[in-house]
Amino acid sequence: MPAARPARPPKPAYRCSECGWETAKWVGRCGECQSWGSVTETAAPTLRTAAAPVTAPAVPIGDVAVETSAFRSSGVPELDRVLGGGLVPGAAILLAGEPGVGKSTLLLEVAAQTARYRHRTLYVTGEESASQVRLRADRTNAVEPELFLAAETDLGALLTHVEQTRPTLLVIDSVQTIGASGIDGVPGGVTQVKEVAAALIRVAKTRNITTILVGHVTKDGSIAGPRVLEHLVDVVLHFEGDRNSRFRMVRAMKNRFGPVDEVGCFQLDATGIEAVADPTGLFVEQHHGRVPGTCVAVTMEGRRPLLAEVQALVTPSALDKPRRTVSGLDSSRTALVLAVLERHCGLRLHGSDVFASTVGGARLHEPASDLALAVALVSSHLGEAAPTGTIAIGEIGLAGELRRVRDLPQRLAEAARLGFRVAVVPAEPGQRSSAARPARTVDGMRVIEVPGVLTALDVLRLTGREAGRVPRAPEF
């Protein structure tokens, strides 16, 4: 008989220390996070798992009780909106955001609100001392008898606190600061984050504890640590905001219990963080008269319509290469709108400096704001203001046509609720005429459907003098 071949040693595996990406051979640059020198060799373990006792027998899905997993309000309505109804017992939630955006302030408010409903809450801080958190709690009126506070960075000690306190809500600030003894790597590394997150999620599921983990982000805005962290948790939330603005938004990127297209609006001030049920007033400036270079757009943040004012300044340039500066808008969409206005509307803008921005730090990256941007640019270029109380909605194509946008009835209803009188929107796809359709009334607001951007400018009495066209505008 031939001699048995000796068992082959396991092939070496290589793993990125930044994101956890694995490859069969060494490379100098990670193929996932593109970091240099982070791929190191790790031994590939060979495991043989035998059958083991089950924790609970399998039952028909219709016999599984759902009462224990019912939504419970977090005390913050805007956060409940994003989560799909509230906090679910046993759910693992990951909240990520840039430093200083207000993650700790928001979660301290959630912890205090939960404690006010007689639900014991444990807040574990690994970045601050307990006295620092107490000072912030005094400032934001978040001191409650059922809110327990612990400053720990060791996973074993954290689990002991959970065993002794038996909370309903557990907040970890942050998961990158917690380390597990006996595991290679430093806290915040790939191996440590995976072990800590797995242990906390296991405790959350077995004890029905709602667990919120605070996560750091990298310089490009993605969540720091291994990608598997986002797969392990039930909900992934991003906390967004501009440092120069008090406005903050919580956006759901993953949600096993609700929609992923919802956003919550907050306002951060010296006394803490407050929910903003109607944030439109933050992004629309109140002018006393007609001002050239402004127009109001209606954008959708998740399923919520928000009105935002677009401002533009077009002035002759003394430079060989005119400047194009945008703030809160997509620079590529702005360049596209400028090219369409010059090619299809007869406006000479190539020799002018163009500055475009939004009011209140709003970020408009949706194509539905193209028409409002075009109206603001033409209004500034001609020195003529658009009619008062007008909104413009529509995506501009390269041929100068206007394309329909989603959720148009919701956008119009929100604009009508806020007192706008005229709306210029794209025409239905079947309309081939170059003229505007007769206006119709929606909730007391006149809605004018136009097929292209040139017709929209005619309707708003902003037809360029350079093109030599005669306005065919109705009376407003």
From TrEMBL:
CDD domains: RadA_SMS_N
GO molecular function: ATP binding; ATP-dependent DNA damage sensor activity; damaged DNA binding; hydrolase activity; zinc ion binding
Any single biological process term in GO: recombinational repair
Motif RadA KNRFG motif, residue range(s) on this chain: 254-258
Residue numbers binding ATP: G97, E98, P99, G100, V101, G102, K103, S104
Residue ranges occupied by any RecA family profile domain in the UniProt entry: 68-217
Entry keyword set: ATP-binding, DNA damage, DNA repair, DNA-binding, Hydrolase, Metal-binding, Nucleotide-binding, Stress response, Zinc, Zinc-finger
GO cellular component terms attached to this protein's record: cytosol
TM stretches of this protein: none
Entry similarity comment: Belongs to the RecA family. RadA subfamily.
NCBIfam families on file: sms
Known role: DNA-dependent ATPase involved in processing of recombination intermediates, plays a role in repairing DNA breaks. Stimulates the branch migration of RecA-mediated strand transfer reactions, allowing the 3' invading strand to extend heteroduplex DNA faster. Binds ssDNA in the presence of ADP but not other nucleotides, has ATPase activity that is stimulated by ssDNA and various branched DNA structures, but inhibited by SSB. Does not have RecA's homology-searching function.
Name of the protein described by the UniProt record: DNA repair protein RadA
Species whose genome carries this gene: Nocardioides marinus
Lineage: Bacteria, Bacillati, Actinomycetota, Actinomycetes, Propionibacteriales
